[in-house]
Task: inverse folding
């Protein structure tokens, strides 16, 4: 009996938390004015306004091109990287592995700022290139540059899934190709990568989907040329008409979800197929790395070059910028060095609050979120019922809402429901938004841990006389302790990095570094932004170091 | 305790009907072995009795107490059935010491700490692990883990203890020792037990009664000697022991005797068939009942000795003629060549 009540409560709360924001958005999109406006009526006015706006059409096509372009870059590179790292004797694989995953954990806005100060028109590397070549051979503020940068920073996503699939494959097929006379590159292209096609396909859809979620990169890199994608169009809409045009924003959100929801569903199908493919092959075969001989250092060089462009350039850029008064042509580094930007951080109470809030949301909020995920995962764990499918789909819903959208939807929920309004300007609102946005990811972490507990351990407790809940408390939870701690660490990293979800919820008391960075960048406070970015990167670096030290797997 | 009664139990996993109407009684103090090939439903039956699988028809109960009754919509959760279950994988909780593993059932029953201490210590010394209470399961050998799993199921004195292939994870030598130890323990403590196994020797050694399952139904049940010496069906005859299989045509059935035609010669045995003369027949005879002779006689086949094999305590001889192969045991090797192989009529079953 206890279990049924527990399950009912968990199911109800999850459904409410997930569906309320979504329903409110859909409801708002069919109103002619913001929901709090007494003159609001049902109608399709908002839809016709948005669909008639040429900027919207432009933004939609740009999003499509960027998403497809970044997938076209990230998929082959990520798959090849996985082949090199998993299958070959490329040097330094052990220390390269965590570095490869860094772009996943560093906030996209920080990377974007980093590129601007590193290779922007007067960036650190640009001025260097101009001194040597007499001109700057690249133009950061263009759609192609946006695509290349988005593509390169999403290589790790493809890498993760391809690597997992490759680890499940036997090596004999590759060795056969090698013996028949194929060089390592041909082995990868003709044998290994075709074998893991389902996983690569999944990763491709994932990256395309992430393309629709892009916000930090197009906001920073697209703005000077007025290049808009759907998310930045939504963001700009706030100021476009001067009055709160919630109904228009709701329409854009509905359009975004209409694209992302099928993509999420497709990913789910593809992932299942990919895993089936792997499990058939995964017979615990001993793997002997493919020897690259002369190609070893070439491959190593290629990986390091990618890491340099994707990780080192923006991080070096942002770090250097945070230690100089100004930068431009003809400026000598020694003349402009300073620590003032870090000192100035303390002059801004909102920045100080933001740093503390970010730590709090990461440590305490992360723990609370993992606790929620665990409660949900335990409720559906070994529940022989069709309801588990319902929970599966519920968990998927927020995945279709990019952070910016989820933050907006939640803001509306706080405005719409009278007794929730006082919470709007507290960290509770941020925590709720973060927890909902990362629900699917967190659930995957926790369920993965739960699956490792053999069913007979719980059954043994049941036959010994423990109720279902008691068996979970006494056996399951203690056994997944370390998995839960690892999940907490990963959620900490994600929450500290997060920037887009907090944007609409930003206000006095709800500052977090991510949303502050976006808002400060808008005011042109480059000095402050650089220093704060470095603080953010350091927090994530510390978390990553702990994770690597403890041997936590950096992916769910 | 009272008797465990399972009545017409049916159970589906997905679309697959695993148990197709199984009825079974385990009187107090008796050890019943559930024997059968893999997929016969023996573990599923055990888990249904424990309350870990839900049947869709039938009933399970001990005495007057119903555990499960599809008709009356009773389904007692596993924890309220009060049975002891020993898992094939032992399922010892890795985060608890041996003592805490064993003590858990008592703790759940609200036993006082002092009493728990005495009873767990008693149980542990009964199984010969009195000194290992503070260890964690991973610090024990396979045999020790298995004993802890048994102690855990025994400590709260369940009316019935369920054993799911408890010996299958031990290596061959240890398994024989553990078998003797387990039988002694069960007899000494006067336990009622259901023991699932796919090993017929283990079933015969441990059980007072064997229930032979085949594809979700009971093929035969009875004392080990009955199952071994008087198999009722071809399946039971072939499943128990090591056998020779002779195929032929039935020529005559009368007075409980059946004669069949094998390789143009007549072999007579005990009739286990309802078919009339002219039908197909299968003769089954245990390896150890086949005799070798040097001259022709009734129920003898002239066969070629192919390969004598030395097994240590005896020889195994492989005879053949045409597509018929017969194996037999002998105390001494025979010369290769032609021999007469005798099938004593009282040892040959004709199905």
Result:
């Amino acid at each position: 009996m206890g279990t049924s009540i527990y399950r009912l409560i968990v199911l109800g709360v999850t459904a409410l938390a997930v569906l309320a924001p979504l329903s409110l958005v859909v409801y708002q999109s069919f109103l002619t004015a913001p929901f709090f406006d007494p003159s609001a009526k049902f109608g399709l006015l908002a839809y016709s306004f948005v669909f008639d706006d040429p900027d919207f059409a432009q933004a939609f096509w740009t999003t499509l091109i960027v998403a497809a372009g970044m997938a076209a870059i990230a998929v082959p590179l990520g798959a090849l990287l996985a082949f090199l790292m998993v299958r070959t004797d490329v040097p330094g694989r052990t220390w390269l592995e965590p570095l490869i995953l860094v772009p996943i954990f560093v906030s996209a806005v920080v990377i974007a700022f980093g590129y601007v100060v590193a290779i922007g028109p007067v960036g650190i590397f640009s001025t260097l290139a101009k001194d040597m070549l007499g001109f700057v051979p690249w133009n950061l503020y263009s759609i192609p540059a946006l695509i290349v940068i988005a593509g390169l920073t999403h290589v790790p996503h493809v890498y993760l899934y391809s690597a997992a699939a490759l680890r499940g494959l036997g090596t004999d097929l590759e060795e056969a190709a090698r013996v028949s006379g194929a060089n390592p590159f041909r082995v990868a292209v003709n044998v290994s990568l075709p074998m893991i096609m389902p996983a690569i396909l999944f990763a491709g859809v994932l990256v395309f989907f992430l393309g629709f979620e892009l916000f930090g990169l197009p906001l920073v890199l697209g703005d000077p040329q007025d290049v808009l994608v759907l998310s930045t169009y939504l963001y700009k809409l706030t100021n476009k008409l001067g009055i709160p045009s919630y109904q228009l924003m709701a329409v854009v959100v509905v359009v975004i979800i209409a694209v992302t929801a099928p993509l999420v569903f497709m990913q789910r199908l593809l992932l299942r197929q990919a895993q089936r493919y792997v499990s058939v092959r995964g017979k615990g075969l001993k793997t002997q790395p493919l020897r690259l001989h002369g190609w070893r250092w070439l491959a190593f060089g290629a990986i390091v070059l990618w890491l340099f462009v994707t990780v080192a350039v923006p991080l070096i850029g942002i770090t250097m910028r945070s230690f100089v008064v100004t930068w431009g042509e003809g400026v000598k580094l020694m003349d402009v060095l300073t620590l003032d930007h870090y000192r100035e951080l303390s002059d801004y109470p909102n920045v100080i609050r933001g740093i503390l809030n970010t730590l709090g949301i990461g440590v305490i909020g992360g723990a609370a979120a993992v606790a929620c995920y665990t409660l949900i995962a335990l409720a559906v764990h070994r529940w022989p019922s069709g309801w588990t499918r319902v929970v599966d789909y519920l968990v998927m819903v927020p995945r279709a809402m990019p952070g910016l959208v989820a933050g907006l939807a939640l803001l509306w929920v706080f405005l719409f429901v009278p007794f929730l309004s006082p919470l709007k300007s507290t960290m509770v609102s941020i925590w709720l938004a973060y927890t909902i946005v990362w629900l699917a990811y967190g659930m995957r972490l926790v369920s993965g841990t739960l699956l490792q507990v053999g069913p007979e351990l719980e059954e043994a407790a049941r036959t010994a006389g423990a109720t279902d809940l008691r068996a979970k408390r006494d056996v399951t939870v203690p056994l997944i302790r370390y998995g839960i701690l690892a999940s907490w660490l990963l959620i900490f990293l994600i929450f500290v990095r997060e920037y887009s979800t907090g944007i609409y919820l930003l206000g006095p008391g709800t500052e977090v570094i991510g949303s502050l960075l976006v808002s400060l960048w808008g005011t042109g406070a480059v000095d402050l932004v650089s220093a704060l970015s470095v603080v953010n990167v350091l927090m994530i670096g510390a978390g990553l170091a702990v994770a690597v030290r403890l041997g936590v797997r950096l992916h769910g | 305790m009272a008797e465990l009664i399972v009545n017409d139990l049916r159970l589906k996993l997905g679309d697959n009907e695993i148990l197709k109407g199984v009825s079974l009684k385990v009187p107090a103090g008796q050890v019943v072995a559930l024997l059968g090939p893999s997929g016969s439903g023996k573990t599923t039956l055990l888990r249904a009795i424990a309350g870990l699988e839900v049947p869709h028809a039938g009933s399970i109960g001990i005495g007057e107490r119903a555990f499960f009754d599809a008709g009356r919509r009773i389904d007692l959760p596993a924890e309220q059935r009060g049975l002891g279950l020993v898992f094939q994988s032992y399922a010892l909780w890795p985060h608890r010491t041996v003592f805490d593993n064993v003590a858990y059932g008592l703790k759940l029953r609200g036993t006082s700490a002092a009493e728990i201490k005495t009873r767990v210590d008693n149980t542990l010394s009964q199984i010969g692990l009195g000194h290992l209470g503070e260890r964690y399961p991973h610090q024990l050998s396979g045999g020790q883990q298995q004993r802890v799993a048994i102690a855990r199921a025994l400590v709260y004195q369940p009316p019935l203890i369920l054993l799911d292939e408890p010996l299958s994870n031990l290596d061959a030598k240890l398994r024989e020792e553990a078998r003797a130890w387990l039988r002694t323990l069960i007899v000494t403590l006067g336990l009622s037990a259901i023991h699932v196994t796919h090993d017929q020797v283990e079933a015969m050694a441990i059980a007072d009664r064997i229930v032979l399952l085949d594809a979700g139904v009971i093929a035969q049940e009875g004392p080990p000697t009955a199952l071994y010496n008087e198999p009722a069906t071809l399946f039971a005859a072939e499943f128990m022991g090591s056998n020779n299989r002779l195929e032929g045509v039935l020529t005559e059935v009368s007075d409980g005797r059946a004669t069949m035609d094998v390789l143009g010669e007549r072999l007579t045995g005990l009739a286990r068939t309802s078919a009339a003369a002219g039908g197909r027949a299968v003769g089954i005879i245990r390896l150890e009942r086949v005799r070798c002779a040097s001259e022709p006689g009734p129920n003898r086949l002239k066969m070629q000795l192919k390969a004598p094999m030395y097994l240590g305590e005896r020889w195994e001889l492989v005879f053949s003629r045409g597509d018929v192969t017969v194996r037999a045991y002998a105390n001494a090797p025979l010369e290769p060549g032609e021999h007469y192989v005798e099938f004593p009529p009282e040892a040959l079953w004709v199905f």
